[in-house]
Write a structure and sequence with these properties.
homodimer; about 500 residues; alpha/beta; Rossmann fold; GMP Synthetase, Chain A, domain 3; nine-stranded mixed beta sheet; five-stranded antiparallel beta sheet; 14 helices; 28 strands
Chain lengths: ~500, ~500
Amino acid sequence: MTSGLGGSLPDWLHDRAHISPDRIALEADGFRLDFGELDAGAAELAAGLDHTGVKPGEIVALLAQNGALFVQAVHAVARAGAALMPLNLRLTPSELAWQLSDAGAHRLLHDAANRDLAIALRDEAAPLELLALEKLPVQSAPGDPPRFDLAALHSVVYTSGTTGRPKGAMLTYGNHLWSATASALNLGLQPDDRWLACLPLFHVGGLSILLRSVIYGTTAVVHPGFDPARVNAAIDSEGDGVTIVSVVANMLQRMLDERSDQPYPSSLRCVLLGGGPAPEPLLRRCAEIGVPVVQTYGLTETASQIATLAPQDALPRLGAAGKPLFGAELRIVDENDSQRAAGEAGEIAVRGPSVTPGYLNRPEETAAAIRDGWLHTGDIGYLDGEGYLYILDRRDDLIVSGGENIYPAEIEATLQSHPDVLEAGVYGVEDDRWGRSPVAVVVLHEGAVPSTEALLAFCRERLAAYKAPKRIDFASSLPRNAAGKLLRNRLGDVSSFS
Amino acid sequence: MTSGLGGSLPDWLHDRAHISPDRIALEADGFRLDFGELDAGAAELAAGLDHTGVKPGEIVALLAQNGALFVQAVHAVARAGAALMPLNLRLTPSELAWQLSDAGAHRLLHDAANRDLAIALRDEAAPLELLALEKLPVQSAPGDPPRFDLAALHSVVYTSGTTGRPKGAMLTYGNHLWSATASALNLGLQPDDRWLACLPLFHVGGLSILLRSVIYGTTAVVHPGFDPARVNAAIDSEGDGVTIVSVVANMLQRMLDERSDQPYPSSLRCVLLGGGPAPEPLLRRCAEIGVPVVQTYGLTETASQIATLAPQDALPRLGAAGKPLFGAELRIVDENDSQRAAGEAGEIAVRGPSVTPGYLNRPEETAAAIRDGWLHTGDIGYLDGEGYLYILDRRDDLIVSGGENIYPAEIEATLQSHPDVLEAGVYGVEDDRWGRSPVAVVVLHEGAVPSTEALLAFCRERLAAYKAPKRIDFASSLPRNAAGKLLRNRLGDVSSFS
């Protein structure tokens, strides 16, 4: 790809530890590591990997909880010259075994907490060598580590694909470097930034926080999982409050619920909101109490953000996912790859130095997705007259009903603006007359009394007739993947239980 | 060079204008241009260049005052696919003609103020086509401009070499991009930054401010020249005060004199101090009134900064020029290119993505300067135990006296700490007994009474005997180049008039 960054740089963590050894690199598991300490730990671990026989260029899988060991493993795998394949802890052993075999990975780093899962995996995916992170031989590290080739493979991250078999997106050092750089060019960079990862580190949204931390020389704060009260406490903490946090809409909603919409301190300068179109009621609620929400659009294939609102646009551009980051390009195309005009919906295509060179061992899927240098995302959206991106939906979730396009996200947003509704999901079902029709699954606020009729009337007042759900089911929660993304293809299972 | 950045990006200014058209790009000549306006102006000018026959890849020289036209020309030349050769306005027509012929440049962009110089140049350097900036045919610009190839030549900047023939340092797009990025990773980046250029834009220290502006989306404030009162007013301006300013020691001293050491407002977050070792009395004076001085070490060949103090180290590391910026490496070598230990002085060698691939049309000088991927700078310095760089002097200015190394900068700093001394320069003269000996030229504060004996006694109390100047001459000013660097090889001329 001509748009990928080439050249080489010193090992990022080692470089950073040379420049600012005493700055705090990581806060996790109740303690703090400065860059000098993180570097020393990663060096030992890398030497251990080397001793174990890990070869430069091989893919090493990682199965670990959010925590300091995960972070050290990320840097150690890079230092050993291997590529990192972070595994999704929510998948079954057979799903993970399939991914390992697909990637041709034969070594698995795991932490103590995931020992049983690792053993189950080994039974399914032979041959697989297990390397317990806590038990790797402690080796003294040699001198300066090898340089990073920006065109080389840094990581393989399997897409959290809501449909079909996952594919391993290859991300180069250059992809990650440019992603971090472009994010700073948009959000700004303050030496005392503290970026909270309460998303899984095995997703690109979490992983990229760790890489930004060493490139910027700022602190990554890592929580073991998402706990709204804990996130709020980390933001409120006086003197060392989190300044940036990455969340999806559902998490942000729970954070606001937990604090009863009390405003956040001014030290919180950015709530980076990804994971799909954000419900407008949530954005308005944030605007009212001054939460500095910045919507973003990103993919595994773009090493996280590719378009993000500028902080000062957050309020005037409510609902927009921003403009492409510096160096990135974005266009909307129709089925024939022709560019669509402003305001017209179509598939979002992206290009730039943070875009994956392709899918591991998948030349055909790569060629299908990346055409003329543009990655076709499968997401539907439009650009307004000034070039701001608005995300409508996943192409796969589009409901074509009587020739009309129905975007589930639009109906969900409408339902979520009803005071009784906590969250809503919409999917398509077969319909003799229209081909397909929308069905909604709704989670009500505690104490609210379900009334299908009232909710349907609410929708009919606000939406064109063909968009009103054919049926509304109730559930206690909605199916989401580890990144918090709504799994619409599983909504049918949930609603059948209601 | 494996360390240079490769790949391609959209035209920087055009990309920036798409992302944030309404942000202020430039303040110069008494008016403001936003990025949309600057982009439109550069596009017209680029189309004009195209119309005039400028070919992609050719070198276009620029002879213009600091101002908006200079800035538009910089971006227009890049957009036309040509490489920029900014000319030093203080040189004579024959010196400039030599450079044009050395570079093989046959087209010269000039502003109205430099028309006579341009014509004189044309008479010396045939064939040379003159293009008056104010009179270029206005052309409507086509659609999206070509992408920037990061490995391509962006500019040729002749070194302000204090000795010998100047050489044209080639700077690629990747050199400038990484320089801007690495600077932000060290100094931080705030969307409302305003960076003042009061140095000539034809030097890399000024030029790099313009490129950072479009990469960051922040404002470049351009003064026609250095006027301490005007600089101070720009910093003090309420609501839109300059936040960063690039200066050399002599300028900073005059700024403080002009305001009688009144503290600056807190909006001034960084005074980037380059141009050689800074006198300690000046640094202490700044520390006392809280001027946020950040020392830096940079060269034309490194597209400006290569090592810079972190802002928080400014006071604790008084006198140090910092650590290498992220991605850059620095070492001290002896005559045989062997690395010297911490604390030992030697030649400074640098490596990294902002380092020039070499000198234009000078394969031998390039090979002599860049060995094993390391650029040997000709500057003398040492690294302390923690890796902080201390600049001692130019290798060419070193005075070897009776087998001892004498660094003029050390004697100058001592003289400058005397209350009667405004500035001091030291150079070597032949000495029958010692080989060479130091001679000082001193500029006194107004009203001070010159006393050679008192100054010599002052030096003898503070310096080893062999370092004390053999003679002290007095002058009304010291010879400096356009970047404000002391020209020690011309000190003999000055002192002979005293």
